[in-house]
């Protein structure tokens, strides 16, 4: 019963956010300067050709009509047609989503597998009084969390691909080619997560309930896994949605640096040439992904810590 | 206080326990040369104001002192086990089962992310090797012992679904799982409202009666302790100033600090128009210097 109410409330919230994203991406593109009809017809086309292009694209219709057509298309799975290639936008996205999805999954895995253990180990070492460690930890993660992703990407490419030639410098064909970009987008969020998890874990380690658990003299492994871990990951999970969003943002830039043919590269290119439907489609898709991940995080949080279910209603 | 330490009746024997801050020699010890003992089945109270060292003493006995504090003692003997020289590994089982801890804040002392059942059964699963089923049956009996209704349902609930009084009773039930010879309760009722306080105190006395567990009760409230304890130890600024039977305490304690503590507790006859008695800082300094010159 509690679960049903929780899921319904999350679903309603999700629906609202999705409507907002759809409306905003539409408005954003239509309020942006430039005339797509001119772009489609060509820079030296005469006024009549531009007018024909405008009618063909439906841009002569009033804005609300265009919006209704757009939303109607969405329900049929139709995101429009690319001005540049004349291909359906869905087709464009399907071709480019692979490398980006690969990057996002690898990046997220890296963040969790590196950031989380680093934070927990950091907390345990801090608590055991390793002062030098605390300083080194805060310094290095602080630095890592503040370096822009394109700098990290360039640095990694220079070191591992150019100087040592261990990994491919660019491309999106092989899994090896995905390693450097994945590391490049993961460094910042992993460092932020490690910092957050460390502080949270320190709190948990000093909490009365961990003292209770210590009084039971459980093996250290059980103390950490059963009593400390579930309480320190809630912070990380709550951050998960934001982290994923920053990951997507990072992917757009990092794909450029490594010349990967993914959604990010396509997005930037489409913005530059004014290919509105493609931009709209990709932004909508990324927005949906972020919102869905956030909703998923809420559900997982509800499982791990049932109090959040009641608090967040 | 000077009972024969080899006697079988002695459950806990603490000699010259001192607790100090690690690597800070300029800070005087927080607890100084504290010696006391507890007989089997006895209910003993430790009373004192905040900072008198009563909680640290109990944490030292249970080997749960926070990081950064160190202890030294000539002897801490619990149920035939040497708590000073012994290693954590050797003492795991005895401390995990024979000693039950009940902490001050029942809202914070149970793990919020785990079900009551999981928290209750892990001690006996670990130290007694009980199966999940046996441990659950024991947990249900244990919850019944502390008068919690619908115990089977409680095992599936989370701490935030229980009231404060129920949580504290659950803490006690959790301690009972290991059939403890000593229940160490640090301000077990301070965070609860008055009617629930009385229930919890009554429960501790009942358990002492029925199961024979000794209880070491720590509180700042001397009148609360004098209602249930056989003997009361008075601590002040890290030292024991008096260790006397409750009868003697009620007849009139010797130490001026103890007299002060008794005066500081209001009762129904206390004149509302007059400020409550307080113990001023420095009031007993002369006394301390006389005793420890």
TrEMBL record, chain A:
Name the Pfam families for this protein.
BPD_transp_1, BPD_transp_1_N
Q: Name one GO molecular function term.
A: dipeptide transmembrane transporter activity
Report the residue ranges that make up the ABC transmembrane type-1 domain in this protein: 97-301
The transmembrane segments are: 12-32, 103-126, 147-167, 173-191, 224-254, 282-304
Its localization reads: Cell membrane
Q: Name one GO cellular component term.
A: plasma membrane
Superkingdom of this protein's organism: Bacteria
Annotated membrane topology is: Multi-pass membrane protein
Q: Keywords of this protein's UniProt record, alphabetized?
A: Cell membrane, Membrane, Transmembrane, Transmembrane helix, Transport
Question: Of which family is this protein a member?
Answer: Belongs to the binding-protein-dependent transport system permease family.
Protein name in the entry: Peptide ABC transporter permease
Q: Which organism is it from?
A: Aeromicrobium flavum
Automatic annotation (TrEMBL), chain B:
As for subcellular location, the record says: Cell membrane
User: Where's the ABC transporter domain?
Assistant: 14-262
Q: How does it sit in the membrane?
A: Peripheral membrane protein
One GO CC annotation: plasma membrane
Checking InterPro entries in the record gives: AAA+_ATPase (IPR003593), ABC_Ni/Peptide_Import (IPR050388), ABC_transporter-like_ATP-bd (IPR003439), Oligopep_ABC_C (IPR013563), P-loop_NTPase (IPR027417)
Q: Which family does it belong to?
A: Belongs to the ABC transporter superfamily.
Full protein name: ABC transporter domain-containing protein
Coiled-coil residues? none
Q: Which UniProt keywords apply?
A: ATP-binding, Cell inner membrane, Cell membrane, Membrane, Nucleotide-binding, Translocase, Transport
Query: Which CDD domains is this protein grouped with?
Result: ABC_NikE_OppD_transporters (cd03257)
Which species expresses this protein natively?
A: Aeromicrobium flavum
* Molecular functions (GO terms): ATP binding; ATP hydrolysis activity
Please give the chief subcellular localization of this protein.
membrane
């Amino acid at each position: 019963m509690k679960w049903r109410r929780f899921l319904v409330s999350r679903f309603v919230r999700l629906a609202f956010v999705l409507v907002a994203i759809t409306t905003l991406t539409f408005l954003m593109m239509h309020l942006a300067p430039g005339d797509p009809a001119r772009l489609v017809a060509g820079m030296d086309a005469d006024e009549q050709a531009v007018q024909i292009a405008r009618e063909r694209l439906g841009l002569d219709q009033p804005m609300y009509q265009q919006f209704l057509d757009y939303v109607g298309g969405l329900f049929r799975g139709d995101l429009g047609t690319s001005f540049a290639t004349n291909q359906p936008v869905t087709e464009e996205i399907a071709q480019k989503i692979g490398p980006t999805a690969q990057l996002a999954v690898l990046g997220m895995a890296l963040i969790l597998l590196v950031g989380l253990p680093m934070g927990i180990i950091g907390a345990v070492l801090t608590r055991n009084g390793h002062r030098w460690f605390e300083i080194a930890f805060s310094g290095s993660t602080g630095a890592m969390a503040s370096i822009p992703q394109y700098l990290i990407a360039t640095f990694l490419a220079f070191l591992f691909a150019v100087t040592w030639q261990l990994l491919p410098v660019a491309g999106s064909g092989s899994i090896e080619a995905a390693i450097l970009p994945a590391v490049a987008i993961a460094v910042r969020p992993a460092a932020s997560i490690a910092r957050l998890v460390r502080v949270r874990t320190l709190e948990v380690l000093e909490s009365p309930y961990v003292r209770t658990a210590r009084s039971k003299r459980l093996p250290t492994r059980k103390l950490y896994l059963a009593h400390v871990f579930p309480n320190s990951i809630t912070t990380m999970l709550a951050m998960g949605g934001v982290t994923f969003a920053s990951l997507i943002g990072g992917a757009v830039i990092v794909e450029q640096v490594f010349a990967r043919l993914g959604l990010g590269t396509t997005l930037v290119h489409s913005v530059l040439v004014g290919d509105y439907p493609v931009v709209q489609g990709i932004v909508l898709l990324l927005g949906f992904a972020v919102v869905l991940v956030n909703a998923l995080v809420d559900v997982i949080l509800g499982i791990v810590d049932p109090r959040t279910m009641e608090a967040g209603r | 206080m000077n009972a024969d330490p080899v006697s079988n009746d002695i459950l806990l024997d603490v000699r010259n326990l001192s607790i100090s801050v690690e690597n800070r020699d300029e800070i005087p010890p927080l607890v100084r040369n504290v010696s006391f003992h507890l007989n089997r089945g006895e209910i003993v109270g430790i009373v004192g104001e905040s900072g008198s060292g009563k909680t640290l003493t109990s944490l030292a006995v249970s080997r749960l002192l926070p990081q950064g504090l160190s202890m030294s003692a000539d002897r801490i003997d619990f149920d035939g086990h040497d708590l000073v020289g012994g290693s954590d590994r050797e003492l795991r089982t005895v401390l995990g089962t024979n000693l039950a801890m009940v902490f001050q804040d029942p809202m914070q002392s149970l793990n919020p992310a785990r079900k009551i059942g999981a928290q209750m059964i892990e001690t006996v699963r670990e130290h007694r090797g009980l199966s999940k089923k046996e441990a659950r049956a024991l947990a249900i009996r244990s919850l019944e012992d502390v008068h919690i209704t619908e115990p089977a349902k409680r095992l599936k609930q989370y701490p935030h679904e229980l009231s404060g009084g129920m949580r504290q009773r659950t803490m006690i039930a959790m301690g009972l799982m290991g059939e403890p010879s000593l229940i160490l309760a640090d301000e077990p009722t301070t965070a609860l409202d008055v009617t629930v306080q009385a229930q919890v105190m009554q429960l501790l006395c009942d358990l002492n009666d029925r199961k024979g567990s000794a209880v070491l009760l720590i509180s700042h409230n001397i009148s609360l302790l004098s209602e249930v304890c056989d003997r009361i130890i008075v601590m002040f600024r890290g030292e024991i100033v008096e260790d006397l039977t409750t009868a003697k305490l009620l007849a009139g304690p010797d130490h001026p600090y103890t007299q002060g503590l008794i005066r500081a507790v209001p009762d129904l006859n206390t004149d509302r128009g007059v400020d409550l008695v307080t113990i001023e800082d420095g009031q007993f300094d002369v006394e301390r210097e006389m005793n420890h010159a």
